[in-house]
Amino acid sequence: QVQLVESGGKLVQAGDSLRLSCTASGRAFSGYSMGWFRQPPGKEREFVAGISSRSGTTYYADSVKGRFTISRDNAKKMVYLQMNSLKPEDTAVYYCAAASPVAVIVDASEYEYWGQGTQVTVSS
Prior knowledge:
Elements: E1 2-7, E2 11-13, E3 18-26, E4 33-39, E5 46-51, E6 58-60, E7 68-73, E8 78-83, E9 92-99, E10 113-114, E11 118-123
Parallel strand pairs: 2-11
Antiparallel strand pairs: 1-3, 3-8, 4-5, 4-9, 5-6, 7-8, 9-10, 9-11
């Protein structure tokens, strides 16, 4: 079992930066690949970024590539999402998720554990 709690979401201006954090508890955190997803108002949940369990291989959605960076600290059981050059279209509830496969996972249905989400609002 893995419990996930996101934090760091808030109201920011377009062009600002923000870092989201995901705190994990439970066993074997380092064995899970981790992902960030988001759900904009009235839309489906979508993949944002993922990081593999041990090698730290990362993968990003095209919409955030070059602006967002995912990282993890296995010793602290933390996952981060650094978001730069934020745009109004980045407004969404952001979720942290954990998956058993060690590789980066893009498909939300393969993630086993989810946090409750944190709201990010980017004003123009």
